[in-house]
Amino acid sequence: MTTDFTLLLQPDRGQYARTITAIAPDDFGAWLHDQPQAVRTQAAAARFTGKAGTHLIVTGESDWQVVAAIADPHSPWALARLAEILPEGVYRPEGIDAGPAALGWLLGQYRFTRYKAGEPTGQRVLLTRDAAHIEETVRIAAATAQVRDLVNTAAGDLGPAELEHEIAELARRFGAEIAVTQGEALARDYPMIHAVGIAATPERAPRLIELAWGDPAHPGLAIVGKGVCFDTGGLDIKPSAAMRLMKKDMGGAAHAIALAGLVMAARLPVRLHLLVPAVENAVSAASFRPGDVLRTRKGLTVENTNTDAEGRLILGDALTRAGEHAPDLILDFATLTGAARVALGPDLPPLFTDDEALAGALLAAGTAEDDPLWRLPLWDGYDDMLKSDVADMVNAPEGGFAGAITAALFLRRFVREGTAWAHLDVFAWRPTAKPGRPKGADAYALRAAYAMLKKRYG
C-alpha cells in the first residue's frame, strides 16, 4: 500500500483549514443569490452551475475555498472526487457530515505504484468532528487498499508462496496461528486442491493456508477465499482475451485476508478460521484432464468436465475443512463465474445462501454501507444438472445455463449440514473508474460483510 491513510483523516480541533462548502444541486440558485458579486462572477466565469459532482474554487483577497455540488451527502463517495483533484492541504467540510464521506476521501487518494511511479500529488487532509470513528474508517480504507494491492499485483510477483507470506504477516500482527499443508500431505488430505495446482512449477506449488485466532470458546467464524493466483484455464485453456486479467483470480483470497484482518483488529469475540487454497492453474504434462475423476476431502467423487471450472474444486476441499470445526458461520469469497457478471455486471456481487436471517443481514448491511449485493437463488431444481454418469457429480454442467447458480450448488455440497453459509461471487475488478474507485482491482461486499459480522458478534 502506497498511502498512509492515518495522515489523511484528522480530528477537527479548530486548526487552520480551507473550507469545502457542500450544496445540493437543487439549492444552487438560492446559494448563488446569496453570494457577493465577486463570487457570482467567478461562478459564471467557471461555468459552475451546481451540477452534481462539480466544484468551484472561490478566491478571496488572500486565500481560496471550495464549493462543491453534492447530490447525496450521506454517500461514502460524496467527497472522493475532490480528494483526487484538489491541491494538497487541509480541508474542513461544511454542510456535509465528514463521517460517512471520510472513507471515499481516503480511498480517492489510493495509488498503486509498484510498477509505475505516480506523479507526486501531496496529501489532502480531511478534518472531522467524528473523531471516535477515525481509527475504524482508516482500518476499512486500509483493508480495501490491501485487496486492491494484492489483486493489482502481477501474477509473476504473486503466487501461492506470496499469498502464504501475506497471511503469515497477518498472523504475526495479531498473534494468530498459521498452518500450511502442501506436498504429499496436500495430495492425501486435499486432493482437489492438489489436482488443480500440481501442474505449476515447484516454487509455485499448491497449498492450503490456514490461520486461527481467538478464544476457542467463542463462536466459530470460517472465512474462505479462492486463491487461484493465475488461471490459464488448464488444458481447457482460455483464449488470450479471457486470460488477460487472470491475475485477479485470487481476488476471493484477497477479500478473505482483508476481512480476517478487520475481524482481528476489531477484536470481535469469535474463533476465526481463515482458509485460502492457493494454486496456479497451469498447463504442463502434470495437468489434470477433462474426464478425470477427482476424489475429495469429503469423500465424494467429481468428474472433471472443465479444467477451467477449477475454483469450485479447490473451494470444495477448503469448505469441507472449514466445516470440520463446526463453525457458527462460513463465508466464502470467490471470483468464481463469468455467469455472475453476465447476470449482474461488475458492481453487484451475487449472494447465495439458504439462511434467510443471514441473507437479510448481509443485504441490509450492503444497503447501509453503500456496498450492495443481490441475492440469487440456490435453486434446488438445478441440482440435477450436477449429475454424472461415472461419479457422484460433475464440476461444470453442460450447456452453461445458470452458471453462477450451479457453481454455488456445487459448493453447497461441501458445506457442513446445518451450518450458516454464504457464498459471494465477487468480480474484484473495476472496468471503469468512479470517484474514489480507480480502474483496476477493487473490493466488493467487503464492507457489507464486515458490518454484518460486527452486528452479529459485536
From TrEMBL:
Keywords: Aminopeptidase, Hydrolase, Manganese, Protease. One of its GO terms (biological process) is proteolysis. The keyword Magnesium does not apply. GO terms for molecular function: manganese ion binding; metalloaminopeptidase activity. Residues 306-313 form the Cytosol aminopeptidase domain. InterPro entries: Leucine_aapep/pepB (IPR011356), Macro_dom-like (IPR043472), Peptidase_M17_C (IPR000819), Peptidase_M17_N_1 (IPR048816). One of its GO terms (cellular component) is cytoplasm. Pfam families: Peptidase_M17 (PF00883), Peptidase_M17_N_1 (PF21337). Belongs to the peptidase M17 family. This is Leucyl aminopeptidase. It comes from Sphingomonas carotinifaciens. The lineage of its organism: Bacteria, Pseudomonadati, Pseudomonadota, Alphaproteobacteria, Sphingomonadales.
